[in-house]
Amino acid sequence: MQVSDFNYELPTHLIASEPLPNRTDSRLLVLDPATGGITDRRFPAIRDYLQPGDLLVVNDTRVLPARLYGRKASGGQVEILLERLTGEGEALAQLRANKTPAIPSTLTLEGDLSVEVVAREGDFFRLRFAGDEPLPVLLERHGHMPLPPYIKRADRPDDRQRYQTVFAERPGAVAAPTAGLHFDEPLLEALRSDGIETATLTLHVGAGTFQPIRTDSLEDHRMHAEWLSVPASVCEAVARTRARGGRVVAVGTTVVRALESAAQTGELQPFEGETEIFIYPGFPFQVIDGLITNFHLPGSTLVMLVSALAGRESILAAYRHAVEAEYRFFSYGDAMLIMAGTAEVPS
């Protein structure tokens, strides 16, 4: 298959650059992949499509203020976007400057924070931060929230709360698991009262999630690595759900990648480490039955992932409908539910 098979036309005015006043104000497009049926709802109606005994799996990663600004010794400006923390005071990062910094060299960031560029690894640079403070603490003081490149504005103080899910706990991501942004505590409590169980895993989303595919053929593309942890408690929750006849619903593509990575031996098992799993049509899903997700960039690996679950034609038809109905797209945009046998519920 070709990358071009997953493109679609998106008017730029549908790219959401601001969050809605309330998390649950989002719209919800419900897609039945078996029939291609589409239903337009509001996000709180997710309760109508989940049943007692179902399991929601969420990602508790916390977005770091991972964008930093400073200067090289020559005075030239530099922008840093961390990819991941790799050790005490060290990180991999993307650097943007008129001229690539020398290796080794020292950068001076806002607040007189000193950073050494120690090596280059492919598209990334290895950085070492001065001082003894933990890097997450330094980032909270000196960093900016790493809004995606399609949001054409500077970050604001409110992004520290809104570009973060309500279940974010483990710092390490440089992009939000955006399907989770639609949930607030009252909705989660309502789902619990409906008999919906919740389980939590971690996948630290990297900046590579926004990198374009540079090959024509899907089979030639290699995914960026991301760190994840699927604890035994998640495996046990999935087993309980299967035993009672419930369904496993992933809140976001990051949860899909984590669960399916942990099941590559043929059975879901606790797993901690990196994954480069690439999910595209033909992928044999072993864990999930449904997915709550946002709308994704044309030709992206995430469009390919949802196409693997629902079928390419069904996804592209749903995206065309979303464009015509003027849904809001991408990180601060609206949501989609993909689950067989649900689109017949009346709006």
UniProtKB/TrEMBL annotation:
- Source species, please? Spiribacter aquaticus
Specify the taxonomic lineage.
Answer: Bacteria, Pseudomonadati, Pseudomonadota, Gammaproteobacteria, Chromatiales
User: In Gene Ontology terms, what is one molecular function of this protein?
Assistant: S-adenosylmethionine:tRNA ribosyltransferase-isomerase activity
Keyword flag Lipid biosynthesis: no
Cellular component aspect of the GO annotation: cytoplasm
Its protein name is: S-adenosylmethionine:tRNA ribosyltransferase-isomerase
| UniProt cross-references to NCBIfam families, sorted A to Z | PRK00147.1, queA
Any one of the GO BP annotations: tRNA queuosine(34) biosynthetic process
Instruction: Give the function comment from the record.
Output: Transfers and isomerizes the ribose moiety from AdoMet to the 7-aminomethyl group of 7-deazaguanine (preQ1-tRNA) to give epoxyqueuosine (oQ-tRNA).
Q: In which pathway does it act?
A: tRNA modification; tRNA-queuosine biosynthesis
